[in-house]
Amino acid sequence: MSLVLYSSSSDSNDDENDAKHKTKRFKPQLPSANIQLANEFDLSEKDFQTKNERSRLFPHERGNWALSIYAFVECSSHLDTMIDDLIEIFDDKWKRLMELHISLSKTIPIRFHHIESIRKGLQHELSLSMIQFSARIENVTILTNEDESTSFLVFTLDQDRQFAKLIEIIDKILREHRYPGYYANPCFHISFSYSMDKSRKENLPKDWKEKCLAVLKQYQCQPNAITIAVDDIRLKAGKRVYQLTKST
């Protein structure tokens, strides 16, 4: 799903080892038919429907799984309260999203037999890169998807260069399996609320941007509210979620 800014939203960054010690290039391999997938979180059907009540991004086809890669965001108590304060600025057509994340890939249909190969490839490359960092919330804005069926309240983030390094790794593995990479100029963000109301644009408070900025300023002294750890990268395929980084 491509997200674009609303027209009314605010504007939005050792030396080499000897040849015998060089890291081996990871080569995708097809899994066995009955493989046990590691680091798997199995969402219940009820949870899955609750977290995905919006319409499908593409028609369901037997044998295809919807795949996405993202950074899981731990919602601290201060961040949780700040989100509640922000949503109160808008009408009741805006619903809170139950799980926070930062998208690092498009949501794409893939074949089941590619899931384990992609997972292993990503785990291998991410373990070598050891990319972990913190991003700060910079602003609150509204994004809408390409068909304009859904709009999102989002936090925009800094650390574009660090995110770009993650995207480079993820795109490499996806393209090795002949799947598309991420958008050319992505806006890295955390969606925390959405609305599918047809009149949502007309019903926005005239001063919503100013009110959102005022709420952000109130929480500037609370690092747990505005600082986001980017260290837990996950892959979701259908209802299954696989943890790619971060030791438990």
From TrEMBL:
Which molecular function terms from Gene Ontology are attached?
3'-5'-RNA exonuclease activity; lyase activity
Q: Where is this region: Disordered?
A: 1-26
Per UniProt, the keywords (alphabetical) are: Hydrolase, Lyase, Nuclease, Nucleus
Q: Which domain of life is it from?
A: Eukaryota
One GO BP annotation here? U6 snRNA 3'-end processing
Lyase: present as a keyword of the record?
yes
Signal sequence span per UniProt?
Answer: none
Pfam families named in the record: HVSL
Q: Looking at the UniProt record for this protein, which Gene Ontology cellular component terms does it annotate, in alphabetical order?
A: nucleus
Q: Which reaction does it catalyse?
A: a 3'-end uridylyl-uridine-RNA = a 3'-end 2',3'-cyclophospho-uridine-RNA + uridine
Q: By what name is this protein known? A: U6 snRNA phosphodiesterase 1
Gene3D superfamilies, A to Z: Cyclic phosphodiesterase (3.90.1140.10)
**Keyword Nuclease (UniProt):** yes
What taxonomic lineage is listed for the species of origin?
A: Eukaryota, Metazoa, Spiralia, Gnathifera, Rotifera
Alphabetized InterPro entries for the sequence: Usb1
